[in-house]
Amino acid sequence: MSAKRYFITAIGTDSGKSVISAIVTEALQADYWKPVQSGLPRDTKFVRSLVSNAQSVFHPEAYRFTEPVSPHAAAKLDGVEIDFDQIKLPATSNDLVIEGAGGLLVPLNDQHFVIELADKFSAEIILVANLYLGSINHTLLSAHELSRRLPYSNFTVKGIIFNQCPAPESERIIQKHCPFPCLLRVDREDAINPAMVSHYAQLLREKLGI
């Protein structure tokens, strides 16, 4: 079976992409890669601290910037411009979890958006939706944009993961209008640690039948 690539994106910033990336990485014993990092601490270091298995490899970023702002702005502050063509997959024969930056339409430069990385790498997209006041609108807008791009893109959509549950009425109305299946629900946890990640990784494995 050939290795797969999963692109973790979200309905916005601070949706919990790194925690979900750790869960997916642990569930699949996959490698992890954050192509573009803006600000510190590094998400790669955080995800590594949550993953328990010995198989996963954590690959270096293609670009790493100092300020925690949009990648195009962070690059400008550091005196560079992101060259989309120079963002290349790390060498691995393992499944690969790729964590995006912010939401779908966060700009990398004046021409390219984050979602185009999923297209470039023919990845399966997992959309993270954290549940807050306004998240229904943000989730359905994100789902609509993915659906709009699907016919002419190289990516597919694996499904959606709800974060900071429960919010049953928000989940219900989102699933009624969203064409993508729910893969997992992650509760509002008091502690984010390897045990928590392992718990949800097992639930995800069961959902995916692996």
Describe the structure.
The chain has one domain: Rossmann fold (3-Layer(aba) Sandwich). 35% of the residues lie in helices and 23% in strands. The chain contains 7 helices and 9 strands; from the N terminus they run E-H-E-E-H-E-E-H-E-H-E-H-E-H-E-H. It has helices spanning 17-28, 43-50, 71-77, 115-120, 135-149, 168-177, 194-208, and strands at residues 5-10, 31-33, 36-38, 58-59, 63-65, 96-103, 124-130, 156-165, 182-187. The strands form 2 sheets. The chain has a 7-stranded parallel β-sheet, with helices on both faces. Helix 6 links the parallel strand 8 (156-165) and strand 9 (182-187).
Notable traits:
two-stranded parallel sheet, 210 residues, single chain, Rossmann fold, 7-stranded parallel sheet, globular
Q: What overall geometry do the principal axes of the alpha carbons give?
A: globular
- Number of domains as seen in the coordinates: 1
What is the helical fraction, as a range of percent?
A: 25-40%
Q: How many β-strand runs?
A: 9
Q: Which parts are unreliable, with pLDDT below 50 for 5 consecutive residues or more?
A: none
N-end to C-end Cα span: 13 Å
Going by CATH, the architecture would be 3-Layer(aba) Sandwich
